[in-house]
Design brief:
The complex is a heterodimer of chains A (268) and B (326).
Chain A: H1 26-38, H2 40-57, E1 67-68, E2 71-72, H3 73-102, H4 105-109, H5 116-145, H6 152-165, H7 167-179, H8 185-200, H9 211-217, H10 223-234, H11 240-267
Antiparallel strand pairs in A: 1-2
Helix pairs in contact in A: 1-5, 2-3, 2-5, 3-5, 3-6, 3-7, 3-8, 3-10, 5-6, 5-7, 6-10, 7-11, 8-10, 10-11
Chain B: E1 26-35, E2 38-48, E3 53-57, H1 64-71, E4 79-84, H2 89-94, E5 98-101, H3 113-121, H4 130-136, H5 152-164, E6 170-174, H6 182-196, E7 201-206, H7 209-215, E8 218-223, E9 226-231, H8 233-241, E10 243-248, H9 254-258, E11 263-269, E12 272-277, H10 280-290, E13 294-300, H11 303-311
Parallel strand pairs in B: 3-7, 3-8, 5-6, 6-7
Antiparallel strand pairs in B: 1-2, 1-4, 8-9, 10-12, 10-13, 11-12
Helix pairs in contact in B: 3-4, 3-5, 4-5, 5-6, 8-11
Classes of the chains: A mainly alpha (268), B alpha/beta (326).
């Protein structure tokens, strides 16, 4: 029925190849990081607010110079704020999938060679780069004030602990990003993270809470992480309950993210 | 009206270059797709050969997008099989054999036009240069503009540019001009047509009749998830409407004209005679050889009329009794 004037040669399918590693590459990573840094709200959330909170609470001369393990209270607060910034950063990074799903970008990517797994790996790496930037910014601001004191190696070790620990919240961000398809996901999550930060004792030491709240706080997601990242500075050893708290929450967030991710890729 | 469903799969179309046994660009066999109780696609068999420019034409809910999603591997058919160049759709996409321009969305507002193309290009093994595809889509001048600041037409051209990056053998466009103004639509189709001249296979879905008529070699009319007509635009028109043969003829013998095989009605207006016919060739041959008729003219009804006739709900179609249509 169709009149086809010119016979068109059939393409040789075998000359075409699919990319390795499901399409993962550094160009995408570079552009994703650029996008994150371009987002003013993310930068304010992940870098400016934690640095500001340190300046607000970390310099008070009535307690800043008191001894805290191998350093002083100012250094202790610096580590707390770096953790707060890092989890905000990695959560924002992970939660970007929500915005991308709302915009239809995830669906657009399905008509490219990028595999869903490679996409998630890119999201996690992007979140971790932003988390590192946040830790570095907060620590540099702290160093600039000259108030926090701790041995040189503890600056590095504490920063690394905070950064690695924030991976738990990259999983949290991904889980929430797949769960809540909205452009405003970080407005919810920012509030949720603040509650977690209070629960974990990042802003106020847990010892100042009523007993019932202290007990409850030990089950919140930032409790174990907060204790662990301060352990090198305090030098009082590690309690197994901290490790359990961190690992259980990581498992919950990762399982949630995998569950929603599977559902998402099956449906689209 | 059952005569309209003229789908002959035995004519060898879709076998690619004749005789080589190469797979067609798209092969669908008995494809069905349900969304709960709703049957979006109810058994489509289709071959599209390399180099064809094909329109999926149908009203909303006819199953165009559902079928395209299956061809792209974005959703799975409940029954039947689909192959793109003989392989699974997902493999065809990974190898850059097929790409698509989706309806709306699918862009990140915080990247620039060039960055979006660069992002997409990095995912393919042998992409065309970003500058080249932007130029072919006519958006080189806005390369550094944020996507969020681009008009709907510019965003659509960007989607087109992204679809060109893998230099695909098959380009699929799902209602590509929805929401564009007339000028944007014309510019967009000019770019597509220029591109298709290079021999690319193109499948586009549309509910704009004039688009299907103007840009496709072949129109596949869908209704209620089934193919109701398949052919060139004039064939589709003829299926629904037949043709009208108009001649100048003095003293016509109305009875003799009605007796021509394929003639359906005869109208005489002075020396002008109009014969409505399902087989206009036979009527024209008779008129030119057996009568002194002159000034012969054959017209078809507009595609719009064919479209309405073939897709309207009161069209009698026996297999369409099951419920569950949206």
């Amino acid at each position: 029925m169709t009149t086809q004037s010119v016979p068109v040669p059939v393409p040789d399918v075998s000359t075409r190849t699919a990319p390795g590693m499901g399409g993962f590459n550094t160009t995408v990573l570079k552009l994703e990081i650029r996008r994150l840094l371009r987002n003013r709200r993310t930068v304010i959330f992940a870098m400016i607010i934690p640095a500001f909170l340190f300046l607000l609470f970390g310099l008070n001369s009535s307690y800043a110079n008191l001894r805290a393990g191998h350093g002083n209270v100012s250094a202790f607060i610096l580590v707390s704020m770096a953790l707060y910034g890092a989890v905000l950063a990695t959560t924002s990074g992970g939660a970007m999938v929500s915005i991308e799903r709302a915009a239809g970008w995830s669906r657009q990517l399905r008509v490219t060679p990028l595999s869903p797994t490679a996409y998630v790996v890119i999201k996690i790496l992007t979140a971790m780069v932003l988390g590192l930037a946040s830790v570095v910014v907060v620590f540099l601001v702290g160093m600039g004030t000259g108030k926090p004191t701790m041995p040189g190696y503890l600056w590095v070790v504490s920063a690394l602990c905070v950064w690695i620990g924030s991976l738990v919240f990259a999983a949290f961000g991904l889980f929430m990003g797949y769960l809540l398809p909205t452009e405003n996901v970080m407005q919810f999550l920012g509030f949720g993270l603040m509650l977690f930060a209070f629960g974990g004792g990042l802003f106020i030491p847990l010892s100042q809470y009523p007993h019932v709240l202290q007990t409850l706080a030990k089950f919140t997601p930032l409790y174990g992480l907060n204790q662990l990242v301060h352990a090198p500075l305090l030098g009082e050893g590690v309690q197994w309950t901290w490790v359990v708290n961190a690992i259980v929450w990581l498992a919950i967030f990762a399982a949630g993210a995998v569950w929603r991710f599977r559902k998402d890729t099956a449906r689209v | 009206m059952g005569r309209m469903t003229v789908i002959d799969m035995s004519d060898g179309r879709g076998q690619g270059t004749a005789g080589t046994g190469e797979p067609p660009a798209i092969a669908l066999r008995g494809v069905r797709k349900n969304f709960g109780a709703v049957q979006a696609v109810r058994g489509i068999d289709l071959d599209i050969a390399s180099g064809e420019i094909v329109a999926f034409l149908g009203p909303n809910g006819a199953g165009k997008t559902s079928t395209i999603d299956i061809i792209l591997g974005l959703s799975h058919a409940n029954a039947g099989s689909v192959a793109v160049y003989g392989i699974h759709p997902r493999q065809a996409i990974s190898r850059g054999l097929v790409s698509a321009v989706m309806q709306t969305g699918g862009l990140l507002k915080d990247l620039t036009v060039a960055e979006t193309a660069e992002y997409t290009a990095s995912l393919f093994t042998q992409p065309r240069p970003v500058a080249e595809v932007l130029q072919r889509a006519g958006i080189s001048s806005i390369a550094d503009r944020r996507v969020g600041k681009c008009s709907g037409g510019e965003q659509q051209r960007l989607r087109f540019a992204m679809a060109l990056l893998p230099d695909p053998e098959l380009l699929i466009l799902d209602e590509p001009t929805t929401g564009m103004d007339v000028e944007g639509r014309r510019g967009f189709w000019a770019a597509i047509r220029q591109d298709a001249a290079r021999g690319r296979t193109v499948l586009f879905a549309t509910h704009y009749l004039e688009e299907a008529d103007a840009y496709a070699d072949r129109i596949i009319l869908l209704r209620h998830g089934k193919v109701v007509a398949d052919g060139t635009s004039s064939e589709v028109k003829a299926m629904a409407a037949g043709r009208t043969v108009r001649v100048t003829l003095a003293n016509p013998d109305q009875a003799a004209l009605l007796a021509i095989p394929g003639a359906e009605s005869v109208e005489v207006r002075g020396e002008t005679v109009l014969v409505h016919a399902s087989d206009s060739d036979a009527v024209a041959r008779y008129l030119l050889t057996q009568t002194p008729a002159r000034d012969l003219e054959i017209t078809t009804r507009g595609l719009e009329d064919a479209f309405i006739a073939l897709t309207s709900d009161d069209t009698d179609e026996p297999s369409n009794t099951a419920g569950g249509r949206p």
